[in-house]
Amino acid sequence: MTRVLVTGGAGYIGSHACKALALAGYDPVVVDNLSLGHADAVKWGPLEVGDIRNSAFLNKVITHYKPEAVMHFAASSTVGESVADPAKYYSNNVVGSLTLLEAVRQNEIETFILSSTCATYGVPTCLPILENAPRNPISPYGATKLAVEHALADYGTAYGLKWAAMRYFNAAGADLDGELGERHEPETHVIPLAIQAALSHRPIFNVLGRDYPTPDGSAVRDYVHVADIADAHVRAIDYLKAGGESSAFNLGTGIGTSVIEILEAVQRCTGRKLDIRFQPRRPGDPASLYAAATKAAELLGWHPQHRGIDTIVGSAVSWFRHNLAA
Ligand code: UDP
């Protein structure tokens, strides 16, 4: 079996990727410092607890398990926090990724899949967003991910590393078998926040901005089921192993959903009514982001299977119903 080192494999997307890897016949080995991840989300292979900025630790793990590929999810990923504390983002995301890339180079691992983001584009100049759109991030989070993408491209040219940068739009939902879900502390994402509010005794939800140039005035995003995102990563490994050219891929559905539409779905899926309040915009939030994901379809054969906002929100509701402390 091909071993894959999965950094951040105890986190939301990384843990779903481990399940997808295992189902595809790969052998995931997780490295996670558990600062945000959960040890009980690591179910498909060993967990090595440590920090990717520690090269001695990385070399020890790589020497022991001899992975043939790396999927790199370990990162800080909240836009607002990155504005308030950029040092944390440059350290975790840039120093961490460069330390990992050096360990990959020294140990002659050929294949590297990066968890990247549509935040590398900044405010889009046209929609839907194509992979070759200008990349002008407006947050330190987006800037750090773009810096790592540049490093990957340069490592590819100079050292022959095969890489894929997966630029997610909004990862959402939960494992359809109920084995994994989204647990961020603190939570800032619209779907888990709205579900938690709906299932609570105080179902208040704050919509951040009602004056965007969108059909209902709330911000529009492209929500993709996390299992589909995980599937795309496995496909990227297969593609590179088959000789595919290193590249960046948008992971989106091409369909925009507004915050108000998300809240309607949460109310439908929970059967509870939300007390919706309107607040000012969140700094750094573009009005609309949705992807042109034709490249992932053409080169990876990737077609999101869990489409439709009720499917995505419904899977998250089901996970929360089983896992929320009463
Ligand atoms: N949002 C909101 N209320 C909240 C949290 C988020 O209205 O309590 C909005 C946010 O302003 C954005 C959308 O929901 O327009 C998606 O935000 P999220 O943080 O889930 O993902 P992002 O697009 O920022 O990665």
Automatic annotation (TrEMBL):
CDD domains registered for this protein in UniProt: UDP_G4E_1_SDR_e
Alphabetical UniProt keywords: Carbohydrate metabolism, Isomerase, NAD
E.C. designation(s): 5.1.3.2
InterPro entries on file: Epimerase_deHydtase, NAD(P)-bd_dom_sf, UDP_G4E
Residue ranges of every copy of the NAD-dependent epimerase/dehydratase domain listed in the record: 4-252
Listed pathway(s): Carbohydrate metabolism; galactose metabolism
Family listed: Belongs to the NAD(P)-dependent epimerase/dehydratase family.
Quaternary context: Homodimer.
Matches recorded under PANTHER family: UDP-ARABINOSE 4-EPIMERASE 1 (PTHR43725:SF53), UDP-GLUCOSE 4-EPIMERASE (PTHR43725)
Name under which the protein is recorded: UDP-glucose 4-epimerase
Originating species: Labrys neptuniae
